[in-house]
Amino acid sequence: LPGQILDQWFESEPLKATLATDAVIGAMASPHTPGSGYVLLHHVMGELEGRRGAWGYVAGGMGALSQAIARAAAAQGAHIFAEKAVCHVLLGRDGRAQGVVLQDGTEVRSKLVLSNASPQITFLELTPQEQLPKDFVQRIQQVDTRSPVTKINVAVDRLPSFLAAPNARDGQPLPHHQCSIHLNCEATHLLHQAFAEATHGHPSSRPMIELCIPSALDPGLAPQGCHVVSLFTQYTPSVLAGGQPWDEQARNAYADTVFDCIEDYAPGFKASVIGRDILTPPDLERIFGLPGGNIFHGGMSLDQLYFARPAPSYSGYRSPVPGLYLCGSGAHPGGGVMGAAGRNAARVALEDFRHL
């Protein structure tokens, strides 16, 4: 349990609760849920430019990272086709992957196919089911993909000023504006209460909020004096109580709750809002292909990690279909902006390619 780990190191309840958010980030779990301590360790075990446990902003926004990867691939001769949806994986008579078929009917032939789509999309939608073992299909269907995350992107016309650390007169960003700001995290029991509400199908009345202002470090993201604010919030169930839909009314009601909370810490925040984009779990699934809206392509619980990710006997990136590999977050070691799954899968695929 993360509480036991944090109790060994810290006395301050607000500090412990703030650190405990990394134990539940993206997970339909509470800091009191057994196994959530691993999620905490997963988020602090990495490093950035030699600094252990550090995180960073990508200059130009997260899309700039994708563009950098694309440029590196193109420099090695890769051809990239955007906005070309894949319909299914093309199989030969011997059952090997031979490429993919696009939705417009175009066939793209290749000796190997690597998918960084989720295991659910890769194996349940894109791969002919008769080519997969029934127990494997059942295992993929049973992966826990519950997600508590609603992401809200906000444009504001001035820098938020927090009661705990008011802005300077010149309105320039202060050190705390350049970090992750955690709200509603004064005590671990508040996180548990927020989780408990979601387990009954109700969005948290006092959500856990991680607020970042990337434009405080990267001014090119917004016009002068204005800022973009990224809100990573939970807990919001994928399916609301009583089967109610996540319609515009439900989206806005939850976002209003989040903004009311921020207003308590930073009066004037709501008046500064120019626009907002609300992405509930169903939106994250529909737009980004995240199963259940899960940012990790599946829960990071101990029964879905290491040799069991995405399924027992298939953690080595090879799938039941020869020549088809899984290289996204649904493969070992799971989620996070690190590229480990892709690098590992590429090495396995390259090894097989040499023996073709």
Automatic annotation (TrEMBL):
Probable oxidoreductase that may play a role as regulator of mitochondrial function. Interacts with COX5B; this interaction may contribute to localize PYROXD2 to the inner face of the inner mitochondrial membrane. Keywords: FAD, Flavoprotein. One of its GO terms (molecular function) is oxidoreductase activity. Residues 35-162 form the Amine oxidase domain. Coiled coil: none annotated. It comes from Balaeniceps rex. This is Pyridine nucleotide-disulfide oxidoreductase domain-containing protein 2. It holds the Pfam family Amino_oxidase.
